[in-house]
Structures are given as C-alpha cells and as structure tokens.
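Closing statement on the FE2/S2 (inorganic) cluster sub-project.
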Amino acid sequence: MAALLPRRARPRMRRLASLAEALLTPHGMDRYLELIDPMLVRREIRGVVTEVRHQTADTVTLTLRTSRAWGGFTAGQYVRVSVDIDGVRRTRCYSPANSQHRSDGLLELTVKADPQGLVSRHLHENAAPGMVLGLSRPDGGFTLPERRPRRVLMISGGSGITPVLSMLRTLADERHVGRITFLHYANTAEDVLYRDELADLAARHPAVRVVFAYTHARGGELRGFFSAEHLEAVAPWYREAETYLCGPTPLMDSVRELFGADGLSERLHTEEFAPPVLELDTENATGQVRFTHSGREITNTGRPLLEQAEEAGLRPEHGCRMGICFSCTKVKTTGCVRNAKTGALSTEENEEIQLCISVPVGDVEINC
Ligand code: FES
C-alpha cells in the first residue's frame, strides 16, 4: 500500500500506524488486521502457502509468500514454523531450501513426514495454497563465511539437503567461481529431493559437480554409505576445502569421524547448537509426575521432563534436546513447571511446554 502513496505522505502514515498500534494495546493492531486478512499483520511474521508439491512420497515442498515483517535469511539458517493443529499451536524448525538472493522473495520449505511427527505429518497431508503458517526470524550459525571459500564440499543426506542446497543456490546466484562438489546420499534415485534442479544447476555452472550416492540401489555415481573412498573419488582436494554437512545422524557421525581422524574438524561445518545451561535442583525435587495419555507415573527427580518420561518407559517425540526445535512440545494439563533455561514458571492449566527444558515444581500432569 505504501508504494501507492506519495512519498511525502509516508512518514505521516507511519506515525498514524504507530498511534493506532499504541491505542489498540494490549492486543496491538495485528489482532485486528488479521480479522481482515491474516497476512496483513505488521509485526508478526507469517507465510501464506502459494504452491505445494510432493517431490517424493513422504515429503512436501511448500512455497510461501511472507508477511512484511520478514527480513530475509542467510543460507543455512532455520526458521521456526508454527501451525495450529486441533486448536493447539505447534512449532518446529525447518531450513529454507531456496537461495538467500531469490529475486521474488518467496520462501521454500521441504518437510519430510516423520511417522511420529505431528507437524510434519500434518503439513504433508493438509498443506494447500492459502494455508497460513507462523514464522520466526531466521536463526542458526550454519552459514557460509562472508568471504566465500575457494573450494567448497557439501555433503547431505535425505531431507538434510535443504540448508546445503540453499547454500549451493546462493553461491550459484553469486556466480561463485570456485570449485564446488555437492555429494548427496539417498536410499534410491526415487528418494532424491531436487534431483532435476541439481542436475540443471550443475549443467549451467561448470564449477559445480553434483554426485548422487544411493545406499540401497544402483544407478548413482556412488553406491553405499559414506566412506573415505567416496570422499577421495569425488573431492580428493577436500583437505583444502571448507565442508558443509547436514543429514541423518549416522552420516553426520561417519563424516565427523573421518574429518576428526584427518585433523580437519575445523574445516567441517555442521548445524551445531551449544547446549543450554540448565538450572536443575535435583536435591529438593518434590511431587509426582503423571503422564496422562499413557497412564504412567514417576516420582519427580528434578531432571527435565523428557528424561523423566523416558525413565518412565515413554518415547516422546523429540529432536535437539536443547529447547530449540520445539518437537518435544506437550500440553501440561495441571501443575507448575519451570523452564530450566530461562527460569520462567508455567502455572496455567493446559499450557504447552517443551519437555526437554522443563522441570516439574511439585505435582504435574502432562498429556503424554
Ligand atoms: S525443543 Fe528440541 S527436543 Fe525439546
């Protein structure tokens, strides 16, 4: 709308908007604007789905137009995506797969449906054009340095392709002249995400080499799981390169082990999160923890609820165990828990909490 206004009128409009925002406190203007159109919000970041495609049977790729508060991202970062499922807001982290320089400003997320994953299954089954998702500001330090490395090796597996593909597309948009090898692992050719785009990108950029390795089928340039032989075959210069890695844990572990043995850990970049310092008081813990869905019960040990649930024989969905990904979020039906990262107390009934960083304060009931 601002683009249609004469330049002289814009500061006045901004002042009027701030005044309206102040007058509409505590709900803020967004609560009223969203009644007209959820994408009119000024402060919250949202994305409306404009396109949905299923590249493989168990994934969904969403293209999103973002609301005006979105300020872009750096390739390799992640965003927290929120969606309402049965009236409860659920949040998970996903890394955009598009170039950070994408000219139309759209955001592309590819989500793999985890059989245990509430949000990923919901998006896989229900995402359609017009669906509105909540987004956070981008976060994470898994990014390329400002001064781009001359040689880059990217290794990914499965849906871990998204942050490294974003880096590759970004470098391609920057017409990076250095050598890049993109080594991607999948079970079979049918499981490869972005296969045609990668082949096309390699064809258009002579310095980019894309190698597919299939762990369970023939037909790729390489076969089987990651090994020193694979590395020597596709990037014998890897000792002089910067390597960016994202994929399932076994792949990450074997690449780390090899680079560690080679004394190259500093040149290997992965999505690393610093574990938070949790304030725990196991000496003075009191109360009973009841997991209502399963009917299990345990005496509060003062440890995070995710650990207590596991001690009780449960296997709640989780990811980072550090309070970042939100995949361990459950509803606390009654009682009080303390966020061991921030110290904040949750005392309300039916409040969502993150099991991995929440500790009970006395008796609690968790819907788990
Ligand atoms: S927030 Fe990631 S497992 Fe709890």
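The radius of gyration is 23 Å. With this model delivered, the sub-project is considered complete and its resources will be redirected to Aim 3.
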